[in-house]
Each structure stands twice: as structure tokens, then as C-alpha cells.
Design brief:
Carbamate kinase, eight-stranded mixed beta sheet, 8 helices, globular
């Protein structure tokens, strides 16, 4: 029996991947290609925080975080744009293409896809997304491509070329994109089994209200907070949000097929 949460062919599925779930033995790219072959329309949003930190250190800068967000000065922003929009994005696109897929690299500044304003002057060039333009994504999907999106945004309050781009949270970006393009599912590939309760047990299913309660009560913390919030954002139009262990081979396919993997938020 097919689960009521299984996505029908032709559905748009937004998949957020992070560097911690990519590497030797990982099945993310093959699973994404398989979904495309089955008639689904995957949209990939990627992070790259660990790589940014590595390259920032190479520039002699110590990474600094405030309330879990990277403080981004001009030099750090330049590194983030180069790493996210260049190195990481190109690596993912190249891997999908090498395995027989048809991927296209985009960033949040492509066609002004992600539009933002400065979140907090203390954080520097870190953005809060205020709007999404889906036209570049639609063009890629209509031509049979798998869009791979780097999370940088156009600064709507820019005063010149030096502050035209803002660094934005990849999880948050994925949630906004999923909502705007009316994705059927929002799936986070992580390096944990899913959302855990206060006793560190997996929560297989929860509602938006329960997700908010976990955040308010401090049970969900750190990087899990923006993932839950992004799922809730996506649920304005999506059928379900999922947080799964991307290190498990075949987990992405199983999730789309409606099998019980990770945490499902409805």
C-alpha cells in the first residue's frame, strides 16, 4: 500500500543538502537523478558552511558566529560567495552531470531569485529573505534541468556594488523556495536520524505546532532550528516536510515513496 505521503510523479521536490551528507558512499546525487528519471522535478539547495570556514581560515580570519549565524564582513562575504556560488555549486552540478543527470547551477542572485535585506547590522552582510522570484527556477525546470541553488541573495537595500550580495541561511532559503514554487515536499538531508525528543529518541511524525513547541522549549537547538522552521515555512503550500539522515543509502528515494524515514512534519 502506497503511503498518503508519497509524492505523485511530476511533483516538485525541494531537497536541501549539506556538505556533511556528501562524500564517499553517499547516494544523494544518484537518488536525485533517479527521481528525475521517474518524472519528479527535483530542486536542490545546498549549504557549505564548513567549506566557508575552512577557506576563511586560509585567509587568516577566525570564523565568528553570533546566535548561530556567521558574522559576515566584506572579506568573509567574498569567500562565502566564491565558495557557495563557485566551488560547492560547481562540484554538485558536476557530480550530478557525471552520473548521467542534467543539472544547472544557479545562485540566489540569478534572476534575483532570493531577495533580502540586512538581518542585523551586528552580523554584517547577512540577509533576511523578504521575497523569491521563481522565474529562473521555472526556466530551468521547463527545460528539463535539475536546478542546484547556492544560498546567496540580492540585497534590496544595496547602496552600491560592495553590498549588492548578502549571505543567507541555506535551510531558510530552501524553505522560502519550496513555498514560492509550491513544492509537494521539502526534504532536508542531514547527518542525524531526524528530529529527537528530550530523551534523544527519534520523533517519526509531528505537526507544525509540535515543531514550534520543540524550539520554544529548547529541545530543538542549533542547526535543527532553521530546518524545522523551514519545513514549517514550506508547509504553507507543501504537503509535508521531512528531516532525514542523508548518510543512509536510498533514504531520499524511500522518503519520496512515503516510507517511514526520519521525521515527517505535517
Amino acid at each position: 500500500m502506497v503511503s498518503i505521503y508519497a509524492a505523485p510523479p511530476g511533483s516538485i521536490i525541494v531537497i536541501k543538502v549539506g556538505g556533511s551528507t556528501l562524500g564517499a558512499g553517499d547516494s544523494t546525487s544518484p537518488d536525485i537523478i533517479e527521481l528525475a528519471k521517474r518524472g519528479f522535478r527535483p530542486v536542490v539547495v545546498h549549504g557549505g558552511g564548513a567549506v566557508i570556514s575552512e577557506w576563511v581560515r586560509r585567509q587568516g580570519i577566525q570564523p565568528e558566529f553570533i546566535r548561530g549565524l556567521r558574522r559576515t564582513d566584506t572579506q568573509t562575504l567574498n569567500v562565502a560567495v566564491a565558495v557557495l556560488g563557485g566551488l560547492v555549486n560547481a562540484q554538485i552540478v558536476a557530480e550530478i552531470n557525471a552520473l548521467g543527470g542534467k543539472a544547472m547551477g544557479l545562485s540566489g542572485v540569478s534572476g534575483r531569485m532570493l531577495q533580502a535585506e540586512v538581518l542585523d547590522t551586528e552580523l554584517g552582510y547577512v540577509g533576511r529573505i523578504v521575497a523569491v522570484d521563481r522565474s529562473s527556477l521555472d526556466a530551468a525546470l521547463e527545460n528539463g534541468f535539475i536546478p542546484v541553488v547556492a544560498p546567496i541573495a540580492t540585497n534590496l537595500r544595496a547602496t552600491g556594488p560592495d553590498d549588492a550580495i548578502l549571505n543567507v541561511n541555506a535551510d531558510t532559503s530552501a524553505g522560502h523556495i519550496a513555498r514560492e514554487i509550491r513544492a509537494h515536499q521539502m526534504i532536508f538531508q542531514t547527518d542525524v536520524s531526524g528530529v529527537l525528543d528530550a530523551r534523544r529518541r527519534l520523533i517519526p511524525r509531528m505537526t507544525k505546532d509540535q515543531g514550534n513547541d520543540l524550539i520554544a522549549g529548547g529541545v530543538a537547538a542549533g542547526g535543527m532550528i532553521p530546518k524545522i522552521e523551514a519545513c514549517i515555512e514550506a508547509l504553507a503550500t507543501a504537503r509535508s516536510g521531512h528531516i532525514i539522515d542523508g548518510r543512509t543509502a536510498g533514504a531520499l528515494i524511500a522518503c519520496v515513496e512515503g516510507q517511514d524515514v526520519g521525521t515527517r512534519i505535517v
